[in-house]
Amino acid sequence: MSAKSVKLENVTKQFTDDEGKVMTAVKEVSLHIEKGEFATLLGPSGCGKTTTLRMIAGFEELSNGAIMFGEDNVQNIPANKRDCTMVFQSYALFPHMSVYENICYGLKLKKLSKSEIEKRVTPIMDIMNLHVNKNRMPNQLSGGQQQRVALARALVMEPGVLLFDEPLSNLDAKLRITMRDEIRRIQKELGITAIYVTHDQSEAMSLSDRIVVMNEGRIEQVGPPMEIYQKPKTKFVSDFIGTANFLGGVVDKKDSDRLFVKTKQTTIEVLQKDADTFHEGQSVSVVVRPEAINLSKEGTESAKVLKSVFMGQIQEYELDFNGIQLYAVVADPGGKEVYYDGDSVNLTFSQRSLHVVPA
Ligand SMILES: Nc1ncnc2c1ncn2[C@@H]1O[C@H](COP(=O)(O)OP(=O)(O)OP(=O)(O)O)[C@@H](O)[C@H]1O
Ligand SMILES: [Mg+2]
């Protein structure tokens, strides 16, 4: 198996409907996925994830731009000749073939000998724990087992690039986590380049080396999960990844790595590496993560507890902060003072969980 890098340069896709109306599903997307990297396209329904993946696979032609596998432009290579395979949400197994036959299918098409096929299939079936089910038909398998067969069938092709379109969304919550871990383990073990599509943020966070956040056909931000969470570039990204409170305000003062934002409630100091990209007087929002809010009897910013819920590992609070509702989460409530509905509290904000985005 030799993993390949994938490069998208200014990729655009337009569809024309029956009445001749043009809609742009993917807009000037540029992206470089490294060899052996696990990249996830994440975004709301209709933002262009599947369309992007289908163009990489060769199922959809580009309206503009280029896609490269390694150094090669794949424009003139049809889907079945491209060095990639796709795993679908629906598994798409052949119902009249056994597990073993399903897994071998692509290799038979490639005219590999019986012994060569066995040499490739056996270790993958080991990894995927499929030997006992070898002779069963797909309809005799659970959803998780079927998805494992679909994954094995893709892996035996030893593709340079492995594509996934929401492969786990038909599985129940627990199995989804098991399969997710399995996909990540195998991808790492075999060093495969993987491009994974989902609209589930926890799936994206747990699987990816980098997340590509998409919105309305465009890339909003690309980065490792923690960076996307801690340093979102836009309001959309901060809201889509994790939970965010927003305090609207204007930049009152700034220096090279700090912004002072004047909000209706208070002036907040935020450490921010890209402070340069903002100007004084600019309208902004301070992203306040729920875990950034500390409640106490000391401090200067007063708020009222609207709702307090004990959840075991955390205490959840809904707060009224001078007319703005904030959602706060305090870990290990057993070891801390807990406040209840109607209590007056004071707030402080942990600086490292604050971030400023354009309004
Ligand atoms: N063959 C097509 N003809 C016309 N419009 C299309 C076609 N395929 C996709 N679209 C449109 O392009 C946009 C992007 O669709 P796409 O399937 O890529 O979204 P997605 O991000 O995968 O969404 P979901 O999370 O719901 O799967 C949508 O508005 C969709 O209606
Ligand atoms: Mg889709």
Automatic annotation (TrEMBL):
One Pfam entry name: TOBE_2
Keywords for the protein's UniProt record, in alphabetical order: ATP-binding, Cell membrane, Membrane, Nucleotide-binding, Translocase, Transport
The keyword Transport is assigned to this record: yes
PROSITE patterns linked to this entry: ABC_TRANSPORTER_1, ABC_TRANSPORTER_2
Name recorded for this polypeptide: Spermidine/putrescine import ATP-binding protein PotA
Keyword Thylakoid found: no
InterPro entries documented for this protein: AAA+_ATPase, ABC_transporter-like_ATP-bd, ABC_transporter-like_CS, ABC_transpr_MalK/UgpC-like, Mo/tungstate-bd_C_term_dom, P-loop_NTPase, Transp-assoc_OB_typ2
Residue span, ABC transporter domain: 6-241
Top-level taxon in the UniProt lineage: Bacteria
Native source organism of the sequence: Oceanobacillus oncorhynchi
Record GO cellular component, one term: ATP-binding cassette (ABC) transporter complex, substrate-binding subunit-containing
GO molecular function: ABC-type transporter activity; ATP binding; ATP hydrolysis activity
